[in-house]
Amino acid sequence: MNDLDLRLDRYIEDNKERFLEELFALLRQPSISTRDEGMTECAALLVRQMQDVGIATQVFPTARHPIIYGEALKEGAPTVLIYGHYDVQPPEPLELWDSPPFEPEIRDGKIYGRGTSDNKAQIFIYLKAIEAFRAVLGELPLSFKFMFEGEEEIGSPNLAPFVESHRELLAADITYFSDSHIHESGRPMVILGLKGMAYVELRVRTTGGDQHSMRATGVPSATWRLIWALNTLKTPDNRIAIEGFYDDVRPLTALEAATIDKIPEDEAALKQLFGVDALLPGRVRDGYYFNLITEPTCNVAGIFGGYTGPGSKTVLPATATAKLDMRLVPNQKPADIVAKLRRHLDAHGFGDIEVHAFNRVTPSRTPVDHPVLPVITQTLEEVYGREAIVFPNIGGAGPNYVFTDILGQPCFEIPHATHDQANHAPNESMDLAGFINGMRTLVRVFPRLIPTLQALREGAGQRA
Q: Do residues 141 and 270 share a domain?
C-alpha cells in the first residue's frame, strides 16, 4: 500500500459517518419503478448528490422513468463509463421486515433497507470515490461518465433505445459497475457477463365463463389445459424440451471452462442455503456454478387460474395463466426463443394458448482474457485480503449487452454486497464492511487502470 492509498483510505474513514448519512437520505426516498412510486423525486435527489461532488448532470426523460447522465472529465485521459440503477423492488410483504423498508438502520454490521445492496449503496460509492479523488489528489485520475437508469427492476425497456441514440455521449474505454453480491465464501468477485431473458405469459381460455365443477366430466378446464402444455416444455431430467432451444448455445472456450473450474463450490452449504435435499442435474454435467453460468433456463415464475382464496369453491376455471422466464446464454436470441416456444406449442396441439412476450434481454459476456481483468482482481485481493473469483457470467439477467454489443465496450461488474443480501426480499441489507471496501477498491483501481487503458487505446489506434 503506497502513501496515496493510505491518504485516500484515511479520507474515507474520516468521512464515513457523513457518507452514511447521505446514503440514508437516498435510501429513505422510495423509487419503486414497477408502480411509478417516488421515481421523479429519487432522480432529483440523486442528481443533487452527483452535483455535490462536482459531476455535471443531465436528466433525459424516457417513456417511463428518467435516465441520469453525468460527467467528471479529465482532458486526454482514458474514460470509464459507470452504470447503475436507482429504482428498487416493491418492499412487500411488509410484515416480514424487521424494520421499515424505507427507514434504513444499521444492525450487527449491516445496513438494512430497500435498495441498500440493489443498487443504491453500490452506486453511491462511485460518487464518494469522485469526492475522495478531488479532496486528496486535487484532480481526477481518469475521465468518468455516469449513466443511472430507473427501470432496471422492470427489465430496462428504455435503456437500449437511449444507448443506441447516444453512442457518442456514452463512448468510453470500458464500462464498470457494481451490483449483485460477493461469493458465499467471502471472497470478492468479478462478473464478466449476464444472461439474457425472454419473459412470456401464456394464457388460455376454454369456456365462455367459469362453470360448476360438476361439469368437469364434459367441459374442458383451462387449468388442466395449461398444465398439460407446461408439461411439454421440460423433461424430468431438467432438460428443456422446446425444439431447437439449445441450437445456438455458444460452446465454452477452454479458458472459460478453466475459469469456471476454479470457482469454489460447497454443495452441502448450497443445499443448506436453499433449503433443498438435492441440486438439479445438469444437461452437460452436474455442478451448481457450472450450470448457473453455462445453462439456459425455462422457469415457471407463476401459475394461476380458478379459485385461490380461503376455504373451498367448486369451480371449473374458464381461464388460466402462467408466467415463464427463460434465461439465455450467448448466442441465444430472445425473439428466436419466443418464436420457438410458439412453434413448440403449435406442434404439440396447443395452438389455442396465447403467448405474450414482455421483457427481452440479450445475453452478454466480456472475454476472460481481457487485459483490464488482472488489474481489478489484484486490487480486490489487496483490499479484501482474499483472492478474487472470476465469473464469466452469473445467472441473473441484465442490460450488459447495451455496453458490449451496442457501445462495443468491455463490461466489468464488481459487487460489494454479501451473498445473504436478501435483495428483492424483506430485510434487504448491505454489509457495512462491503460499503467501505467498495469505496477503498474504487479509489485504488481507477488510477491503476491508466497504463492498461492507455495501452489499449494505442493498440486500437495502430490497428486503425
A: no
Given 361, 378, 399, the domain boundary residue is 361
Contact in structure between 175 and 409 (CB atoms under 8 Å): yes
Q: Is residue 192 scored above 80 in pLDDT?
A: yes
Domains identified in the chain, total number = 2
With beta carbons less than 8 A apart as the criterion, state whether 269 and 184 touch: yes
Residues 140 and 241 in one domain: no
Residue 397 φ/ψ, nearest 5 degrees: -105, 150
pLDDT at 15 (0 to 100): 98
Give the range of the structural domain holding residue 299, as residue numbers without chain letter: 195-361
269-299 pLDDT, tens digit per residue, is 999 989 999 999 999 999 999 999 999 999 9
Report whether pLDDT(93) > 60.
yes
Rounded distance between C-alpha atoms, residue 446 and residue 449, angstroms: 5
- Greatest C-alpha distance within the chain: 82
pLDDT at 111: 98
Percent of the chain with pLDDT over 90: 93
The confidence score (pLDDT) of residue 461 equals: 62
Q: How far is CA 123 from CA 291, 304, 414, in A?
A: 29, 37, 11
Residue given cell 486500437 in the structure block: 460
Strand partners for 240: 234
Q: Which of 339, 361, 383 is the last residue of a domain?
A: 361
Residue 218: CATH number of its domain: 3.30.70.360
> Are the beta carbons of 77 and 133 closer than 8 angstroms?
no
Cα separations (Å) of 241 from 204, 272, 287, 337?
A: 20, 30, 21, 12
Cell 360438476 belongs to residue: 214
d(CA 425, CA 96): 9
C-alpha cell at position 379: 486490487
Other CB atoms within a 10 A radius of the CB of residue 98 amount to: 9
Cα end-to-end distance, the chain, whole Å: 38
Same domain, 441 and 324: no
CATH number of domain containing 50? 3.40.630.10
* Average confidence (pLDDT) over 114-118: 96
246 and 288 part of one domain: yes
Q: Is the pLDDT at 460 greater than 90, yes or no?
A: no
Which residue, chain included where needed, has cell 479532496? Answer: 135
